[in-house]
Specification:
Elements (H helix, E strand, L loop, with lengths): L4 E3 L16 H5 L23 H18 L12 E3 L6 H5 L7 H15 L12 H8 L6 H29 L7 E5 L10 H8 L8 E7 L9 H14 L5 E6 L16 H12 L5 E4 L4 E2 L20 E2 L13 H11 L2 H4 L5 E3 L5 E4 L11 H14 L2 H13 L5 E4 L10 E4 L14 H6 L1 E8 L7 E4 L5 E2 L2 E7 L3 E6 L5 E6 L2 E4 L7 H10 L6 E5 L4 E8 L4 E7 L5 E7 L2 E2 L6 E3 L4 E6 L2
Parallel strand pairs: 1-2, 2-3, 3-4, 4-5, 5-6, 10-11, 12-19
Antiparallel strand pairs: 7-8, 9-21, 13-16, 14-15, 14-17, 17-18, 18-19, 20-23, 21-22, 22-26, 23-24, 23-25
Helix pairs in contact: 2-6, 9-10
């Protein structure tokens, strides 16, 4: 673990103006600023990544960076152990819904899609001329979803080629012999619901033994509200990439980035995040932003409001543990203590991975390929995906699994088949494919007939009634029929089924809250018991057991509440912590290491 990693650019982000891309680049090469939907020029600091003119300028930059960075690399006696190849690739395109639809990129897309689907996949010839480019920039409702799906698949390959181009330029500049890092972006507003969008964009880009994915984690306080997000993010990374991974932007400040004390992160959160990431196999943690700095005035000075290199005023990231003036923030002591507490853990400990229960959460990257939309149909598709793919699912079912003591893994079933002994479908029924066409193969194979959808409103107070449990308020439920199934829940006042079990398959088509009684019954009905058991005041206590490749075992026990808990723990009926009951103070993490 180290914070000695280098961010080479060309994109820096970090509140720099124009994301660190020099303004002269657009003056010299105006064609590098892409156009997007309806031929509109992109206003954000985007470039056409793989254009030879851009790569030529990047090569000059890398050559200069290589002169400075080369002697500092760990293989040459320095202490820089990793180099980041650009920053947040594809993020601006996603958050602004501005795909690069320049002539250059669309010509490459046409070559790619015609090899896969022929010369007229959308009902007209895909010729490299203005009339075709215009049709693709303003796709009609009859083919918009198909085009957007194809373009999303192409973009993954385009980003992969970009990373390979950057790697080639870095090696030419003598920046080699260390891992090349690509950071996966996506957390937003203290949650991880959109993090898989970053995975979806970049999981082809890291298909290289020398390219390592690493997360950007901005969750603020870690608590019962969102602890499952960090666990799920790490498991999704492990499922989607073959290389060892870590966190390139591990949030370590106090949250006061707006200089208005709008947030003040609990410093014990740093230890929670740090130890959970280590327990789940992170091998590199880059504290960000560890030290604040001063934004210097550019020369010549632009008349843009402050004339400085960044837009945060004179100081940059005053929320850092060490201020621009060199003074220590209150978070510094806690970060130091948390980092030093890892020393006994790091000594003689190999690569760690969580010991999972026999529970696998399916992950389909294409469900998160929703960064682009155009027209009513695609907006509706994106809205539907966003409603059902994370959000309530993470806050209800996944959180309930963790609180009940189960530790699930994640499997990318898009790249491989899965043959489960038991199957649980949660949320909306799969009625359409990713292009909006009717696709009911799964529900027909299960004998499911979909019924009406019900939603709550300011005058309609939708509830569902699980068997033997009180009614639960919800905002979404779909009725369905299934022959021979055991009814588990109905829609209140309608009596129509919204949860049922048929053999080894459970179907839940309503958004439940985090009802551990309801989900616990389902898992017990399958005969599943968690490997970790707890006694005492255990609600809100989150234990993780990990095993290293050298046979060592790590146990981390997180108290996610702001008051103390007293618990006893066993792993597969073996007492942990010498059989002693733990008294966990507010937000405390207890650790036990056993080596063979």
């Amino acid at each position: 673990m180290s914070d000695n990693s280098a961010r080479t650019g060309p994109f820096v982000m970090a509140e720099l103006k124009n994301e660190g891309i020099p303004h002269w680049l657009y003056d010299k090469y105006p064609h590098l600023r892409p156009v997007s939907w309806e031929g509109r020029k992109v206003e954000s600091a985007m470039v056409t990544y793989n254009h030879r003119d851009f790569l030529a300028e990047v090569g000059k930059w890398y050559d200069r960076v290589g002169e400075i960075l080369g002697p500092l690399l760990v293989g040459r006696g320095g202490n820089v152990i990793a180099v980041q190849l650009d920053n947040e690739i594809g993020m601006l395109q996603w958050i602004n819904n501005t795909p690069d639809l320049s002539d250059f990129t669309l010509a490459r897309f046409i070559d790619w899609v015609t090899k896969k689907r022929g010369s007229e996949p959308y009902g007209f010839p895909l010729e490299k001329r203005d009339v075709t480019y215009s049709l693709l920039r303003s796709p009609g409702e009859d083919f918009s979803l198909e085009f957007i799906c194809d373009f999303g698949q192409f973009t993954r390959e385009d980003y992969r080629e970009y990373v390979q181009n950057l790697k080639r330029l870095a090696m030419r500049a003598g920046i080699e012999g260390v891992p090349y890092v690509v950071n996966i972006h996506g957390t937003s507003e203290g949650r991880g619901f959109t993090f898989p969008v970053g995975i979806s964009q970049l999981y082809r880009a890291c298909d290289d033994e020398e390219v390592f994915p690493a997360s950007d984690i901005y969750l603020g306080d870690l608590s019962l509200r969102n602890f499952q997000d960090l666990y799920t993010i790490n498991e999704m990374l492990a499922a989607s990439f073959r290389n060892v991974y870590g966190s390139m932007e591990f949030e370590c400040g106090d949250g006061n980035c707006g200089d208005n004390y709008g947030q003040r992160i609990d410093p014990y959160t740093l230890e929670h995040k740090l130890k959970l990431c280590i327990a789940q196999g992170n091998r590199l943690i880059n504290h960000y932003l560890f030290t604040g700095g001063r934004n210097y005035i550019l020369d010549p000075e632009p008349l843009d409001g402050n004339g400085r290199i960044a837009f945060t005023g004179e100081h940059h990231d005053f929320a850092a543990p060490i201020s621009p003036a060199g003074t220590e923030n209150y978070t510094y002591r806690f970060l130091k203590e948390a980092t030093l507490s890892l020393k006994p853990l790091a000594k003689g400990t190999g690569n760690l991975s969580v010991i999972h229960d026999p529970l696998t959460v399916a992950f389909i990257p294409d469900y998160f390929m929703s960064e682009y939309h155009y027209g009513a149909r695609s907006r509706e598709m994106v809205s539907d995906l966003q409603t059902h793919r994370a959000g309530n699912y993470w806050d209800s079912f996944l959180k309930a699994l963790l609180l009940l003591g189960y530790r699930y893994d994640v499997k990318n079933i898009q790249d491989g088949e899965i043959d489960p002994e038991r199957l649980l479908i949660y949320g909306e029924l799969p009625l359409f494919d990713i292009t909006g066409r009717s696709c009911r193969k799964l529900i027909e194979a299960l004998g499911i007939t979909p019924g009406e959808v019900y939603r709550s409103s300011h005058r309609h107070f939708l509830s569902v009634k699980p068997s033997g449990l009180p009614e639960l308020a919800t905002h979404f439920a779909r009725a369905f029929k299934i022959e021979g199934g055991e009814e588990l829940a109905v829609i209140a006042q309608k009596g129509e089924t919204c949860a049922a079990k048929l053999g080894r398959t459970t179907i839940i088509t309503a958004h439940f809250n985090c009802n551990t009684d309801f989900f616990g019954r389902i898992l017990e009905g399958y005969g599943l018991k968690p490997k970790i058991s707890m006694t005492g005041d255990s609600f809100g206590v989150f234990p993780v057991v990990s095993i290293g490749d050298r046979g060592e075992r790590l146990v981390c026990v997180f108290n996610e509440d702001n008051f103390e808990r007293r618990v006893g723990l066993c792993f597969e009926e073996e007492p942990l912590f010498g059989g002693k009951e733990l008294l966990l103070r507010a937000r405390e993490v207890a650790v036990e290491v056993n080596r063979p």
